[in-house]
Amino acid sequence: MSGSGTTEGDDPLQTAVWRLRSRACWTDAAALLAPYADDPPVAVQRAALLIERCLYTEAGWPEAEDALRAAEAVARADDDRGAAACERGYLAYAATLHGVRDRADEARAALGRAAALLGPSSPGRALLDFRRGLLAQYLADTPQAARAAYRRAHAGATAQGDTLLMSFTWRHLAGLALREGELAEARHGFAESLRLREELGYLVGTAPALAALADAEPEPEASRLRAEAQRLFRLLGGVPTWLAAHLTPHPAV
User: Whose CA is closest to 71, among 43, 91, 48, 42?
Assistant: First the structure.
């Protein structure tokens, strides 16, 4: 569930869902999809919205779990079951990352199941590769494996024209570059991620992109970027919650 809902030909429902999602209104976006949740792809999309809410707000875990179980129940084809398994892995990853409960083994098993169900040419493969990169980086601390997974995801997202997923892969590849002291590469990747998110109007993801780029820029540009990130962070009511700690050591000027 990484599409933007902004491409030509998107139906009005998907456009409305995207607008709500991009402004951190995940519950409202999921409610628009509820009447159509008997359709497996829609059920997965609805679960994905509520899981993203968990990752950004550290709240809403029971609702996400219920929506995911419903999506798993209606899945029939391998692609639908694979997509649901990918979301199961992502929910377990988010719970582990935020310290709700250690579900790392569940996350690995679910993403492994998704890999078995989603063929190499499946539309969901790039998103799966990205999430396997997240597990490698943040749960296993194996940056080389994470980089390889992010690169596969980036190639797949580029081939599919999935601009939002590209914004994530650019950002995470840049983060690994920054960790290794490759400032020019990091700056380029963070700038590309920010550019794509601004073009898409992905408001909830723009503040993190600004803060990430600030980490790779010298002053006074770094402070300007953090000030803008602070403004958007407050505009959205303190979402994503985990950004607060990142911005605190760098007061806006």
Answer: 43
Query: Tens digits of per-residue pLDDT, 156-174?
Result: 999 999 999 999 999 999 9
Which of 5, 72, 14, 16 lies closest to 44, judged by CA? 72
- Short-list 172, 122, 123, CA closest to 151: 172
Residue 40 CB coordination number (10 Å): 20
Q: What is the pLDDT of residues 48-57, one digit of tens each?
A: 999 999 999 9
The answer to whether the CB of 232 falls within 8 A of the CB of 206 is yes
Other beta carbons less than 10 A from residue 60's beta carbon: 19
Q: d(Cα 69, Cα 74) in Å, to the nearest integer?
A: 9
From CA 199, how far away is CA 127, in angstroms rounded?
Answer: 20
| Token pair 């920054």: residue | 178
Cis peptide leading into residue 220 (ω within 30°): yes
Residue range 69-95: mean pLDDT, rounded: 98
For residue 201, give the nearest of 164, 158, 154 by alpha carbon.
164
Confidence at residue 247, expressed as pLDDT on a 0 to 100 scale: 87
162: left (phi over 0), alpha (psi -120 to 50) or beta: beta
pLDDT of residue 180: 96
How far CA 42 is from CA of 32, 49, 56, 125, 199, in Å, comes to: 10, 11, 21, 18, 25
Q: Where are the alpha helices (DSSP H) in 34-182?
A: 40-57, 61-74, 78-97, 104-117, 125-134, 143-160, 163-179
CB atoms near residue 209 (< 10 Å): 27
Q: Tens digits of per-residue pLDDT, 15-37?
A: 999 999 999 999 999 999 999 99
